Structure formats: C-alpha cells, structure tokens
Amino acid sequence: MLENKNTIVQCKPLLPGQSLYWLDASTVDLLEYNDANASIIYNDDLMHRHLGCPSKEVLRCAKDHTKGFPKGINIPTTTGLCPGCAQGKMPAASHPPSDTRAKARFEWIHSNLKSFPVPSYHKYKYFIVFFNDYTSFAWITLLWDKASAITALKQWLALIKNQFNATIKEWMSDAGGEYKLGAFIKHLKDAGITVLQSAPYTPQQNGHAERFMRTIMDKAQAMRLDTCLPQSWWEFAVNHAAHCYNRTPMSCLKWQTPYYLLNNEIPDISHLRVFGCGAYVHIPEAHQVNKLSPKSELMVYLGRGPGMKANIFMCTPNTLFYSDKALFDETLHQCFDRLLDPPCVTPRLALSCDVRSSLSSS
Ligand SMILES: [Zn+2]
Known about the structure:
The chain is of the alpha+beta class.
C-alpha cells in the first residue's frame, strides 16, 4: 500500500508461490491504547469533516488558533466535492454582515429559536440559541415546546452568572411567538436587561443570530447527510455543530475562535472525529455478559455529550452509550444501518446522564 509514493504497508508471501500474505503487526489493548491519534492518517479532507465542513481558508487558520491540529497538513486552494457540503449547505447568504459589534463580553446577546419538521430522538421540536455578540460563542438548548424557552433562559442566565460572573446589558431577538410571552420579556426586564426586538418579517435586524442559525444548520445538515443518519438525529448534529462552531476560527474575530475570546484559552480540537463514523467502544467489564464476550462493540459516533468529557455513541437497539474509551474507524461512515445490523449481545448501560435536561455546554 502506497501513499504519496511512500510505502505504508508491505506484505510478502512466506514462501515463493504462496498467495497468502503475512502481515507482521501487533495487537493493541483498547484500555492501554491512549494515543488513538497515532494510527490516523490526517489530511485536509479529514480535518474538514472533523470541524463540521468549514472552508479551506478557515481550515488554514485553524492550524494557528487551535490546539491539537495535526502538523504537516497541506491545505490546497482548490476544493474537492464534499457530499455533506453539497447536500447540506444553502447556496447564498441572505443576511449581510453587520459592522457594529459589542465592545465587551455579554454586552449584547442575540437569541433565536428554530423549529424542526421532525421530532428528534428525544422528541425535541425546537432549539433556542443564546449568541454572545462580542465573542460569537453560542449556547444551544433543546426544547420540547416553545413555552420551555423561559426555563432555558433562566438556566442560561444562572450559568453565565456562576461561570463568568457576568450580567447582560442588551437582548436582541426577533418578534416570534416565544418572545412575545409576557413571562419571557418580564424576566429579562426584571433583570435590568434592555430588550430590543426586530420588526416583524425583517429578520435582518437580528442579523447576527440569523447568520449563526444559518451556519449551524448548514454544518449540522452537512454532517448528518454526509453520513446518511436519520432526520430524527438532528439533535445530535446540532449540538455537535455548535461544539465545532465555538472552536472554529472566524474572519470577523481576526481568526480567533469564539472559545478563545470567551475563555481566554486556545481550544483543543484533538478529540474531534468525523460525525457519524464507526467506533469500537470499550464495554466495561461489569457490563460484559461473560469473560468470552467482546471487550468492545462497533457503534456510531454522535459527537460530544453536552456538559461532559465523554462522547455519545448509538448502539443497538437504538440506545445511547456514553464513553471516553473508543477506537475510531473514520473510514466507516455512510453505513450506520450496517453498523447497527448485528444483534445486540451486550446488555446496555442505563443512560448515565440526561440529555433531555441539556443546557448544553456547547
Ligand atoms: Zn463538507
């Protein structure tokens, strides 16, 4: 096997005339195999998929503004066809960039709410976004109904008070039904926040949130469609798209990342993998049927779990599994139905955390 004229794997028959080839290799214990990156051959296409389909220009800047970006990758100027981008991205920008920006963290917050035609895996129908104008950092909360927006707002305000000791000066949203709820606006005004709402049918007045919504939906759709995952799994794609977005450099931030501007720390992206790819996930001994059971199981990678340092995986039968111990096969994608075909032989862990109550850490 060759790559760039360099030999990667070479096999020779043991004896002349044999058609069976011997591969001299060693096996790896999943638990002891910490440097999972060592076996991955990185290129621009793989990093494009890790970061949720950014442009080549963004990818070029990601080298200098993130930790864990593999060294020595040449980012070409021409763009090959990415099936996810082709299917998931909308063709034209409808909201021109605004040249006014906040001058401090949490000075202006934009908010928007998105509905979906298909209920998600956990039966969510909406998500609400809280978008920090100065840093471009975005928090996403999944909602079952519009009335839950007020609970999401209260939890988010408590989060930024606790984590960043911050208060909000101005709140900008469109004039959608959820924001007309007296309790929602009253809560903002009681907290001393100035509420600005865009005029009906003129979403460009809430341009920053509108552009974020478009970007996040493009990313989520590209990632989900690239790996042929069901529509109802949009909640995982949206959460992971926001996780990638917050760690992606942007020209409007002088190629810094939202994560850096919020936390004053360069984000590490070495944990990112191709959304929807296959992974051999370690099954804890207590959950193996017996000592002859496999120590790992092939599952579908669904991104980072909200608020935790573990990944989400889907295994049979349509059950979530949370783990930080997995070997990824990023060539296994567009095949989730094949991954889920084998009968489940391992009892499933009870869900260790509740995605339904996710005020996502994004
Ligand atoms: Zn793409």
